[in-house]
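sanity check this record:

:::
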Amino acid sequence: MGLGITSTVRHHARRLCDLQREEHSIEVELHQLLGDPKFTLYRLAFKHFGFGVRLEAIILSQIYPIENYFGVDGKPEIKIMKGRKSGKPTKHHLSLRRFQKSLGLAPSLEASGDKSKIKIVGGSDLCRIAFWQWVFTRIEVKRCRLDNEIGAALGAQLDAEKAAGRPVRLVRSRISAKAAKLLFRELVKVLE
């Protein structure tokens, strides 16, 4: 038995239907916005990663235009500095770091006394969550894994780190950061 369909249940069902209609109309609008020619090259790079429309929109909202991350010469900014410990020249990919930071995927070192830990601070929480979900659904699940070199590289690292017994949340975070690096590389390649 039961109480049947009450007015409260009908009210909640109507709200769910309204939310679904609103979600659909937003998705249609996203398709129209992403169809703009200024995003064509970006979306070409995104195809290598198998991002959905929502993730593409989230990423574009943070990184467009990519030229903001470049130096005055219009190319990715790389500084060569003397290493702190070795004293040898080391490359610092400043544009890449700014790009990762805006996506919320740039780890920063926090040290206090004897303790030292890596923590992600700053950038877009929404992007960080979206990348984490993308890793969880498109890289971690082997049958859904991208069938290209990006999927193979990220999948191999993920499988190796999980097999080594590292915490799954840490592994997903690392794969997300590596995916951001690969995305930057693809965007630079496509936009040249």
In short: Helices lie at 7-34, 40-47, 53-63, 94-102, 125-139, 149-163, 168-191. The two ends are 67 Å apart (CA to CA).
